[in-house]
Design goal:
heterotrimer, A alpha/beta, B alpha+beta, C alpha/beta, A: alpha/beta, Aspartate Aminotransferase, domain 2, Aspartate Aminotransferase, domain 1, seven-stranded mixed sheet, globular, C: seven-stranded mixed sheet
């Protein structure tokens, strides 16, 4: 591929868009006037062609399946893009008087209520911008809860070894001490290890359930009980909620606080790396600590008038976690999705997500090693390695998949499985697509044994081949036109 | 796997070469192999620092991992390898020679007794794998 | 509607798995809590859903109906349709994070260009691939500064003229850090510029944080402040409005070490507060301490130039509890939108828009200041926002303005008790002279009551 950078396309003197002359008298320009604005000079058609050509180097859901474990790359409905762009939404300023934005506030209030219902929570805040920020919010709530009770000894957070990296990163950011918990041979939290740490220094446990192995913890009620008995709280990482909609409510299992990933479970698009949205749900005893602002009913309505919606600050709020109200455009998309699903639709989402994963697992276990032989939830993990061909690794399998126009599954995660391949098909993939995926995986397994060099040198048909990541890290070139300091 | 007999090792893959009261510290061949191509080395200990066993003296980064290097012993830092940050690849090519990280004057030589000898370290690596 | 399975598909799949029905897949879920009845309204069809969302949207009054003079961190600028046409391409918005670079060069190269443009705009050496918004970007700047000194310096000197919501966010975020924040406590003199912070900078200061233009719209030369910070080895972090940088000297030229900001003015719709765009740029020496994704240039095994996420060893998926931050998903699509906007406007267009904002704001300011009972709170230079001292409460004035189809400025009393009756007014290229004349007329009427 050879698409130039913007600075390379620039031609001096070009201007794509013009603006009107000022319709007011001009003021004297400021003393702190910039003498050069080094932005590119391009024509409109150049810009459109450049970004159109660039876009074609991307794989995307609209083109094919992403079997990426823990990402829930389900189809992104087009209707969501339409509703999010309604000018009645996009042209509202975040600081407008609440009487002028009752449409927005009603939508947010309804979304709060629905997430409470789905998760089994007493309160929901929509503000956090992504899952990781939702985690931070949740951990800060836990800390504030303990601090409010004078329980300042509680500085220990237990995190299973299968956890997503954001879990320990978040805990460390909040000044808590991270203690890793091992998993047992069936992929559950090791109860003995948990009991050993369940004392009065325990702030809580961060639990992903189903976990990153795709397994529902067989002892989840006991795990929660142990933590609660020791005076700790249980944080639920909601990244894997796609397996649980209408199947079980995390709040009912005793989860005290959980974040939702709207860009996973609730169909909002990944955008090449964001924006996401990470609302947080909490049990009754934590409602007062939620971040501000929440949407509430300021004045109840009656038969003739609608209620007045507005913002409220919880009594012992941890404060604000970002500016304004949250990723509103993503909230509209999630609302649209949930409005069309209803309870029945959401349950089907999880049923078929789990069906699809188990179907793949049932067939692929014949060609790949399956480290945990249990019914999986919406995802499962294979080991991308065969003892008889020790030179072939999960990475090679992943790269070879691209030669079959497929995006690889998640590699090397979770860390507890050597050469892991984490596969999550989601419910929006048909049996036909899954069968095609199976065929490709079987073919690659065969190639690994008969022609391993095809895997080692893959990918071949993609616009670029394997990249020199060492060079990228050692010779930093992070901007156009700037040479790396060699 | 290269494990020189004249060195002592830690379970975190650091080595120390002791001559009298002075020790040279780096990371083992096994460690550099695990990390793969090192792209960045930062020596965080400075000459003149008083440092305890277990303190971080350097951090390393490869493309796929990052690691802290911990002091195997306590003492005073008398030199740091100023060449290493410019040539991180030395950690891969010469982990026991040119990729030494800090030179320390031992304050408590008895700490050496708690370290692993080459044979024990080799056993330790095999169990890890 | 998005589940393609037929009954036959399902039965065949159940058969392959070796179970008889879907319920059998959920035996690990405790029976007492399995299959709850969710109390949600029944699902609507697409047509009905669109109609309902239209009702919600129509229930709002918007900046399309009202002349908008409200700023305070989000601005009503022109968003060219071209920007949306690009980010609406499925190849961009339905793509995943570019962890597999061979099939993500579109996203990666676009982000590399984003980094380049932000570095150029701010006068800094390196930019990351985005943060959530201007507020969290400042919070991460504090984390960077604290980590830079390995916790040995714990004073944060904070301007009271940094956006109130940013200062609140910063405090929520660094609740886990043992830091001392000085400079913005209640009762501090607001009329002074950044020189007032100089006395607070000591050898224990990790970072000095200011906003440019500040929350009150004022523009100050930060050279002296940068010098004072650097004399004691502290960092200077500046939070910017990138639109202002189309006209004004960028913070990199003053000697800023970190530049953060809110990228919403770069072609992103107001959208009731999000999704927005956190800008984060630094000097090259801090690149390894910077949080968030970074795209770097390299070559592939065929000798072609290509782009890849780099320095990933800083990030949570590798470093875990030792990561520089927990950030994973960022605002990639909004960064793409800003890149399209900046390339579409380019060197000349961004300057044109910035100048329009500047001239219109100055016209509004002088017209309003000429009204009896009103005056400008500060005589400091400004870009497109200024504070107007009013003869009565801002709440009262804004009610009148709304009746006349005008969205009035921000009531500063909400955040600064000493600034009752002071309105923060923003003017952009979207405000016509007629809008401004209307604003002036209504304010005159109110003062005559």
């Amino acid at each position: 591929m050879s698409e130039p950078l913007l600075c390379e396309l620039s031609v001096s003197g070009r201007q794509a868009i013009r603006f009107p002359e000022p319709d007011v008298p001009k003021a004297e320009l400021p003393a702190l006037l910039r003498d050069d604005l080094p932005l590119p000079e391009l024509s409109e058609v150049d810009i459109v062609r450049h970004f159109t050509r660039l876009s074609k180097y991307n794989y995307c859901i609209d083109q094919g399946m992403y079997p990426l474990g823990s990402c829930t790359m389900k189809y992104n409905p087009k209707i969501n893009e339409e509703t999010a762009r309604l000018p009645g939404f996009t042209a509202t300023h975040p600081l407008q008087p609440i009487v002028t934005v009752q449409g927005n506030l009603l939508l947010m209030y309804a979304l709060q209520e629905w997430l409470k219902e789905i998760g089994g929570f007493a309160g929901v805040a929509l503000q956090p911008a992504a899952g990781a920020q939702g985690e931070l919010t949740g951990i800060l709530i836990m800390r504030a809860y303990h601090a409010a009770r004078g329980d300042t000894k509680r500085r220990k957070i237990l995190i299973p070894d299968s956890a997503h990296g954001t879990n320990p990163a978040t805990s460390a950011m909040s000044g808590l001490e991270v203690v890793q918990l091992s998993s047992d041979p069936r992929g559950n939290v090791d109860l003995a290890a948990l009991r050993a740490h369940a004392d009065d220094t325990l702030a809580g446990l961060m639990l992903t359930n189903p976990n990153t192995l795709g397994l529902f913890d067989e002892n989840v009620l006991e795990v929660v009980r142990i933590v609660h008995e020791a005076g700790g709280l249980v944080y639920g990482d909601g990244a894997n909620l796609n397996a649980l909609l209408g199947i079980v409510r995390p709040g009912d299992l005793g989860i005290d606080v959980m974040h939702f990933n709207l860009h996973k479970t609730f169909s909002t698009p990944h955008g090449g790396g964001g924006p996401g949205s990470g609302p947080v749900g909490v049990a009754a005893h934590l409602v007062d600590f939620l971040p501000e602002p929440l949407v509430g009913i300021l004045e109840p309505g009656d038969d003739d008038t609608a209620p007045l919606y507005g913002f409220i600050k919880p009594a012992q709020s941890i404060g604000r976690v970002k500016s304004f109200q949250g990723q509103f455009g993503m909230l509209v998309r999630a609302y649209t999705y949930m409005r069309m699903q209803g309870a029945e639709g959401l349950r089907q989402v999880s049923e078929y997500a789990v069906l699809n994963a188990n179907y793949l697992m049932a067939v692929l276990r014949k060609s790949y090693h399956l480290p945990y032989d249990r019914v999986c939830m919406h995802e499962f993990v294979l080991a991308g390695v065969w003892p008889e061909v020790p030179d072939v690794h999960a990475l090679d399998i992943a790269k070879r998949m691209m030669d079959y126009s497929l995006h690889p599954p998640t590699n090397y995660f979770p860390l507890i499985v050597h050469e892991a391949l984490m596969i999550e098909p989601t419910e929006t993939e048909s049996k036909q697509t899954l069968d095609a995926f199976i065929e490709i995986m079987q073919k690659i397994a065969e190639e690994a044994h008969t022609q391993p060099e095809l895997l080692k040198t893959a990918p071949h048909i993609t616009p670029v081949g394997r990249l020199d990541e060492v060079k990228a890290a050692k010779e930093l070139v992070l901007c156009c036109g700037v040479d790396s300091p060699d | 796997m290269n494990i020189p007999a004249n060195l002592k090792y830690t379970s975190n893959d650091e080595w120390i070469k002791v001559e009298g009261k002075v020790g040279l510290v780096g990371i083992s061949d096994f460690a550099q192999n695990q990390l793969s191509d090192i792209v960045y080395v930062e020596i965080v200990a400075a000459e003149g620092d008083t440092i305890q066993k277990g303190d971080t003296c350097a951090t390393l980064e490869s493309v796929k991992a990052a690691a802290d290097v911990f002091m195997p012993v306590s003492g005073k830092i008398i030199a740091v390898n100023e060449n290493l940050p410019d040539k991180p690849e030395l950690v891969n090519s010469d982990p026991y020679g040119e990729a030494w990280m800090v030179k320390v004057e031992l304050s408590n030589p008895a700490e050496l007794d708690g370290l692993l000898d080459a044979a024990s370290y080799e056993k330790h690596i095999q169990e890890k794998g | 509607m998005y589940i393609p399975h037929t009954d036959a598909d399902r039965e065949a799949m159940l058969h392959t798995i070796g179970i008889s029905n879907l319920e059998a897949l959920f035996q690990d879920v405790p029976a007492s809590h399995r299959f709850p009845k969710l109390n949600l309204p029944p699902g609507l069809t697409e047509m009905e859903t669109l109609a309902e969302l239209r009702d919600f949207a129509n229930a709002n009054e918007t900046t399309q109906d009202l002349a908008c003079f409200l700023g305070a961190g989000a601005y009503n600028h022109y968003s060219p349709p071209l920007v949306d046409s690009i980010i609406r391409r499925g190849e961009f918005y339905t793509a995943y994070t570019p962890y597999q670079p061979e099939v993500s060069q579109g996203t990666l190269q676009a982000i590399f260009d984003y980094q380049s443009l932000i570095a150029a705009l701010t006068g800094m050496e390196v930019s990351n691939a985005s943060h959530y918004d201007g507020a969290t970007a400042v919070a991460e700047a504090v984390s960077l500064a604290y980590a830079n000194f390995r916790g040995k310096r714990n004073r944060i000197v904070l301007s009271p003229a940094l956006h109130p919501q940013y200062r609140e966010t910063l405090r929520t975020y660094n609740n886990g850090m043992p830091v001392e924040i000085v400079g913005d406590q209640a009762g501090v003199a607001l009329q002074s510029g950044p020189e007032a912070l100089e006395a607070l900078i000591d050898g224990n200061t990790a970072v000095v944080i200011v906003q440019y233009p500040d929350f009150f719209g004022r523009v100050y030369d930060l050279t002296a402040l940068a010098k004072k910070a650097h004399e004691v080895g502290a960092l200077l972090a500046v939070s910017v409005n990138p639109m202002a940088l189309g006209l004004l000297t960028p913070p990199g030229h003053f000697g800023a070490d970190i530049v953060t900001g809110e990228g919403q003015p770069l072609g992103l719709p107001l959208s009731y507060g999000g999704p927005y765009l956190g800008i984060f740029a630094t000097r090259l020496e801090y690149v390894r301490k910077m949080a968030g994704r970074l795209v770097g240039e390299t070559v592939d095994n065929r000798g072609q130039r290509a782009y890849v996420l780099t320095l990933t060893a800083r990030e949570q998926h590798i470093r875990r509890e030792k990561a520089t931050s927990n950030i994973c998903t960022n605002q990639a699509l909004m960064a793409l939108a800003a890149t399209v906007y900046m390339s579409f406007l380019g060197k000349h267009g961004l300057r044109e828009v910035a100048e329009l904002c500047y001239h219109k704001a100055h016209f509004a300011a002088s017209s309003l200041a000429a009204l009896p009972g009103y005056s400008l709170w500060s005589d400091a230079p400004f870009f497109n926002e200024f504070v107007l001292k009013c003869p009565t409460s801002v709440k009262h004035i804004n009610e009148h303005l709304l009746d006349e189809g005008v969205l009035g400025g921000y009531d500063l009393e909400q955040d600064y008790p000493g600034l009752a009756n002071h309105m923060l007014i923003a003017v952009t290229e979207m405000n016509s002279k007629e809008d401004i004349d209307l604003l002036v007329d209504v304010l005159e009427e109110v003062s005559n009551e």
